[in-house]
Amino acid sequence: MKGSQAWLIVDPPDGKIPPLTPQAKERAAARAEAKRKSGRGPADSWEDRSLYDRCITRGLPGSMMPAIYGNSYQILQAPGHVAIRYEMVHETRIIPLDQRPHTGSQIRSYMGDARGHWEGDTLVVETTNFRDEAAFRGANAATLSLTERFTRVAPDKVRWAVTVDDPETWTQPWTFAMPLTLDDSQPVLEYGCHEGNLGLRNILKAARAEDKKAAEEAARKQQQ
């Protein structure tokens, strides 16, 4: 499956993400201040790069959304479960449909803990228990809940809608939606990415070259 158009915010009706809560603004300011005090740049270390750069995860809903390449994925149904297998980063979500409760709040993962059920012909998937570093758009991982709705609207199309609910981050829940289009010419291919691959190495190598150049320039100015 793949997305065939850019995602659109469908709720609120004005098409805008709701304002941040005071708590969210305080968290963002604290993160910015901690980064400023650390003096670290975006490529001082592999730890300064995103989980996506490090070939760990694109998170949720990021893994479902169009990116620069590798956007194919498969939605597979089996008795009691639905699985979604992604080409990008080679992740697979396993979604139980047997009404089991979510795992305890102390167990968290990059893609969260998903539970699904059917409402008529719509598959509804609620996901919680995210890790802090993978929470969508800087949300509070402890209170973030994503509710996805998959509805087949044509033989080759599924409407995918996501409601983002985090009272610690936004003043109200909000929903975006996009169509997923079946395309048999786009199979899920092997994704040969791993932390420490050439992309990450070259990002850090270029940053060290810039550091060296800046140090040499500073030394040259001191000698003048």
Summarize the structure.
The protein has 224 residues and is an alpha+beta fold.
Structure keywords:
224 residues; alpha+beta; 10 strands; seven-stranded antiparallel beta sheet; three-stranded antiparallel beta sheet
- Which secondary-structure class do the elements indicate? alpha+beta
| Principal-axes shape call | globular
The largest β sheet comes out as: 7 strands, antiparallel
What's the total count of β strands?
A: 10
Distance between the termini: 62 Å
**From the alpha-carbon coordinates, what is the Rg to the nearest angstrom?**
21 Å
The amount of beta strand, in percent, is 25-35%
> What sequence of helices (H) and strands (E) makes up the elements?
EEHEEEEEEEEH
Question: Percent range for helical residues?
Answer: 10-25%
Helix segment tally = 2
Query: What do the pLDDT scores average to?
Result: 91
**Whole-number tally of structural domains:** 1
